């Protein structure tokens, strides 16, 4: 039987994921178009805060609907940190991190989403958001080498794959911190992909072993049935043989007239 919190999570899962996509657009607008009209920039800023507020309200609702609230808080540390993080220091980058974490938590709750699809989505999200974030951080530095979106995408890709050609490097402290996060994320995602592939092969081998085991059991059962049938046939043959030997004397005795 599902709880009220689980029913709430199922109902709000799709809207919150859609809001995270809206947040991605709002976050990209001022990064890609810093000279955009002021109303558009204001819309982007208000949208970022509105999406974060929606995730914060969702966390509060899930907390109120939880049967054991302290256990819910203890088991969801990333959710709580993601809600509180933008309030500690209201930077756009912190709102980006918190929204990604909250959206990731809700996606993982979907049993219909396969692990491979989720990992692919995380890779694309980290690549795009990492590029936007490093571009926003680095392009104002006087020694910056990452000045365009193309440079940022190339840098994010080489960083996540831990190749690191060194042609483009962050020069600010926050940019280098972002680089460390992307490196660790790339290693973790590579481990998840490798484990997923290994698990797929193991599951296939286990399935084949189960089929072989079932076939072996079926052959054993069939062999036992054949042996039992042979014994029954032998017993029937022996019984019919005994009846055939005993039959003629009894008939002959019955044919002799009694005086």
List keywords for this structure.
259 residues; 8 helices; mainly alpha; 82% helix; elongated
Summarize the model shown.
The protein is mostly helical and 259 residues long.
Give an overview of the whole structure.
The structure is a single chain. The protein has 259 residues and is mainly α. It has a domain of 113 residues. It has 8 helices and no strands. Helix 6 packs antiparallel against helix 8. The longest helix is centred in the C-terminal third of the chain and has 83 residues. The chain starts with a helix and ends with a helix. About 7% of the residues have low confidence.
Strand content: under 5%
SSE order, one letter for each helix or strand: HHHHHHHH
Quick one: how many beta strands?
0
DSSP helical segment count: 8
Note the quaternary state here. Answer: single chain
Low-pLDDT runs of 5+ residues are 88-92, 109-113, 250-256
Computed structural class: mainly alpha
How far from one another are the termini? 91 Å
Overall pLDDT: 77
Q: Please bin the fraction of helical residues.
A: over 70%
Q: What is the overall shape?
A: elongated
| Rg for CA atoms | 36 Å
Major sheet: none
List the helices and strands and how they pair.
Layout: H1 4-32, H2 38-65, H3 69-75, H4 77-88, H5 92-108, H6 115-138, H7 149-160, H8 173-255
Helix pairs in contact: 1-2, 1-5, 1-6, 2-5, 4-5, 5-6, 6-7, 6-8
């Amino acid at each position: 039987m599902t709880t009220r919190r689980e029913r709430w999570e199922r109902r709000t899962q799709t809207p919150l994921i859609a809001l995270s996509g809206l947040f991605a657009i709002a976050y990209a607008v001022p990064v890609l178009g810093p000279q955009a009209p002021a109303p558009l920039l204001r819309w982007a800023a208000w949208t970022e805060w509105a999406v974060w507020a929606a995730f914060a309200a969702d966390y509060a609702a899930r907390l109120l609907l939880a049967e054991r609230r302290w256990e819910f808080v203890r088991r969801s540390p990333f959710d709580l940190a993601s809600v509180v993080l933008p309030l500690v220091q209201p930077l756009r980058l912190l709102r980006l991190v918190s929204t990604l974490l909250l959206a990731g938590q809700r996606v993982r709750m979907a049993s219909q989403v396969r692990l491979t699809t989720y990992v692919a989505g995380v890779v694309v999200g980290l690549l795009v958001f990492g590029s936007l974030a490093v571009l926003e951080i680095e392009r104002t530095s006087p020694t910056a080498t990452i000045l365009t979106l193309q440079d940022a995408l190339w840098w994010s890709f080489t960083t996540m794959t831990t190749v690191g050609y060194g042609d483009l490097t962050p020069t600010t402290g926050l940019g280098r911190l972002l680089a460390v996060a992307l490196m660790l994320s790339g290693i973790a995602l590579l481990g998840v992909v490798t484990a997923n592939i290994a698990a797929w092969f193991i599951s296939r081998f286990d399935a084949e072993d189960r089929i072989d085991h079932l076939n072996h059991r079926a052959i054993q059962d069939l062999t036992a049935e054949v042996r039992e049938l042979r014994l029954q046939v032998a017993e029937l043959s022996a019984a019919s043989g005994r009846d055939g030997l005993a039959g003629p004397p009894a008939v002959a005795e019955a044919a002799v007239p009694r005086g």
